[in-house]
Specification:
Helix content is 24%, strand content 27%. It is of the alpha/beta class. It folds into 3 domains: 1-50, Beta Barrel (OB fold (Dihydrolipoamide Acetyltransferase, E2P)); 74-103 and 245-410, Rossmann fold (3-Layer(aba) Sandwich); 109-232, OB fold (Dihydrolipoamide Acetyltransferase, E2P) (Beta Barrel). Helix 6 links the parallel strand 16 and strand 17. It starts with a strand and ends with a strand. The structure holds S-adenosylmethionine.
């Protein structure tokens, strides 16, 4: 069947709007032939924006969805999606900034799926686009080459690892101290496995390898050859295995710049900033160069890591463990702060928003990784009279449909 694509959907599929038909891999303006299940069979009249995807795994690997779209149009799509998210929240006149798009080969965090084949060999890669299969990666154009270089040695090492039976995953974080590996395995590592892991760590410059059961939380260090550290604004923090990091150093820098730029101009040394969902302190340390910071976070290991580093550099950051979904900051508590930064998980910050909307904060700076949650949370601010002072799309997940943003809200007084 032939169809004409007229839009790009939120997940990057070509859309035939009037038929609510979604065709992965098709672009607006194209006439394409599709299967009964809307799979792209052939592009009959290509868009001028269509380019040759640079990665040999594109189309099978679920990591990238948009390598077939020219970079300029791709960036314009991301910008339009942020404008649309804010429009839906009721902010109709926002001049969205140009997106900050991070370059290829800079992603420093990968969550790779592992499968053992019947012949003992190991498949390692991201989940496939359509199926539950794992695409066995020979290369990856978004990941930092230091992580890609570990693919083959990891496969070889896992082949002989007894604690890896059928399936598992490998979280690789590229820290300032080198790659940090968390293996989730379906077996229990014994002495021989631990020796193999220590030899692997030494041969490939990994200060630490940790392990966890495939279904479970308890994490243990399996090999530790040196300290682990990630640096924020010149301060070393020692992260727990598999910790959340912003996806690329360039994306992190763009977020930090946009957050600092959104702070009220008249901060004094005594001003206080509330930072919600602080993680390891990616934003806390840069923010602490402008004011005192109360950094709230629910994950206790992250709070401990942030607290230890914050104490070492003086008392401008208070790291506070708090589940903000169960116990949001109250209007009374918010009175202590000049501004507030929030960087919630994918689901957004629904429980915290009513108090923020009512508050007298000068600025609310919302770091978003989910346009739908931003729309829902933004609606409350809009209804309470807040306006958008600046909105910056940040594309840390190159060639994917994900969209991050820093939105600065202020309330005219
Ligand atoms: C998107 S990450 C941001 C972390 C940090 N701001 C950064 O840039 O690295 C979201 C953080 O929110 C934390 N979080 C999730 N649910 C939370 C809750 N209910 N209360 C407080 N923090 C929460 C997570 O543990 C995670 O550290």
């Amino acid at each position: 069947m032939q169809v004409v694509i007229d839009a790009l959907g939120a997940s990057g599929d070509g859309v035939v709007t009037c038929e609510r038909r979604f065709v992965p891999g098709a672009l607006p303006g194209e006439t394409v032939e599709v299967s009964e299940k809307d799979q792209l069979r052939a592009v009959l009249a290509p868009s001028p924006d269509r380019v040759e995807p640079p990665c040999p795994h594109f189309g099978h690997c679920g990591g990238c969805a948009m390598q077939h779209l020219a970079l300029e149009s791709y960036a314009a799509w991301k910008r339009a999606r942020l404008a649309e998210a804010l429009f839906r929240a009721g902010f109709h006149d926002v001049a969205v900034e140009a997106p900050r798009v991070t370059p290829p080969q800079t992603r420093r965090r990968a969550d790779l799926a592992l499968r053992r084949q019947a012949d003992g060999s190991v498949v390692l890669g991201f989940h496939g686009r359509a199926s539950g299969a794992v695409e066995d990666l020979t290369t990856c154009l978004v990941l930092d080459p230091a992580l890609v270089a570990l693919f083959e040695p990891l496969r070889m090492m896992l082949r002989s690892l007894q604690a890896f039976r059928r399936e598992g995953s490998a979280v690789l974080n590229l820290l300032n101290s080198g790659p940090d590996l968390l293996l989730r395995l379906d077996g229990v590592p014994h002495a021989q496995d631990r020796a193999a892991l220590a030899a692997f760590a030494a041969a490939h410059g990994l200060p630490r390898i940790a392990g966890a059961p495939l279904k479970g939380m308890a994490t243990e260090t399996l090999a530790q050859l040196g300290p682990v550290a990630i640096r924020f604004a010149g301060v070393d923090v020692s992260p727990p295995p598999g910790a959340f990091l912003q996806a690329t150093p360039q994306g992190e820098a763009a977020i930090v710049d946009a957050v600092l730029d959104g702070l009220p101009r008249k901060l004094t040394a005594k001003s206080r900033i509330a930072e919600l969902h602080a993680g390891l302190g990616t934003l806390s340390f840069p923010l602490a160069q402008r004011a005192r910071v109360s950094a709230y976070e629910s994950a206790s290991e992250a709070v401990t890591a942030l607290d230890v580093a914050a104490r070492r550099v003086g008392g401008r950051i208070a790291a506070i463990r708090r589940d903000l979904a169960r116990q949001p900051l109250s209007a009374k508590e918010l009175e202590a702060f000049a501004a507030l930064v929030l960087d919630p998980p994918f689901g957004g910050a629904a429980d915290q928003m009513p108090a923020l909307a009512r508050s007298n904060l000068q600025r609310i700076i919302y770091v978003s990784c989910n346009p739908a949650a931003l729309t829902r949370d933004g609606k409350l601010l809009q209804a309470a009279g807040w306006r958008v002072a600046k909105a910056t799309p940040i594309d840390q997940f190159l060639w994917s449909a994900q969209l991050e943003a820093v939105v600065v809200f202020e309330k005219p007084r």
